Every structure is written in structure tokens, then in C-alpha cells.
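job 3f2a | input accepted
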Amino acid sequence: MSDLPFATIGTSRMRRRLADPLRVLLRVAQLMLARSRERQALASFDARMLRDIGVTPYEAGVEARKPFWRA
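job 3f2a | predicted structure (71 res):
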């Protein structure tokens, strides 16, 4: 019975070590998806909307054409 707590602690540490990279991967995927959606929205803005946010049509076009993996 004394081995049970040690086995449980070791198993939880192993799970945590496996879960951390998965959390990071999920967060990166969420970030890339958000970038893609924001750039699609930016591409759909008209001149008035771009003026409201202080972006020129040229700047919006450059940003909208960036691939989702580039910041």
C-alpha cells in the first residue's frame, strides 16, 4: 500500500509533462486560426472602415495577404 502514493505522483507528473506540449500546440493553433480570421475580416473592410481604424488600403492589403503563420 505504501507504493501507491509514489506511483500516483509519478503518473501525474508524466501526464503533466505530456499535456504541456499539447496545450502549447493547441494554443498555437488557436492563435493561427485567429490571425487568419482577423486578416479575412480586414480584407473585407471598405475604405471608410479602414479610415476608422487608421489603416490605409495599402497597409490593409499587405496585412491581409500575409500567411496565417506570420505575425
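job 3f2a | Residues 22 and 28 are 10 Å apart (CA to CA).
job 3f2a | closed
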